[in-house]
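thread: overnight batch results

M.L. [08:02]
morning all. the overnight job finished for the chain we discussed friday. pasting input first so we're all looking at the same thing
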Amino acid sequence: MGSGLLFPAMAMATATLVIVFVQAAAGQSEMNMLFYMTDNLTGSSETAFPIAGFNGSSSDPGKFGTVVIINDAITKRPEITNSDTDNLVGRAQGTYINTNPVTGLDFFMLFTIIFQNMEYNGSTLQIQGTETFGRPQREYAVVGGTGKFRFARGYVVCTTESSSGENAVLRFNTTFRTN
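M.L. [08:03]
and the structure it wrote out:
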């Protein structure tokens, strides 16, 4: 009789777990956002700075092992002008590290997008992945979020919108789910 009661209790516990899991999945919503990240290593509006590498903070970002810290603008459109405050969505803050000793074109990216306007003000998305500038299209992972994007999971399809020397504008087509 003791073993007969154990099986229904286990079955009931399993059914409860399944119901909880299904409810959690039903509460998720998928979002798609398109925005641009402007990364400037040179010029009057630098937003990316080498901080470590073989030559210390004067290291070349195109050299293996160089660590670059960023505070890049995130915008609705690829152009940035000082008078167009409606275009600014937020900032990308984090780092990238050159990981290719041969070409110098691969970087491990790890940054947080901090939204500064719209209904997402104060919310964040955490992004990580490998950037290979030689490829026309790259993917990063959305590994988390806060605020309106709490528990975010998804991906970013990244393309280069424009580049000039060591400066680039990257297009992020971002798809993720939240709870």
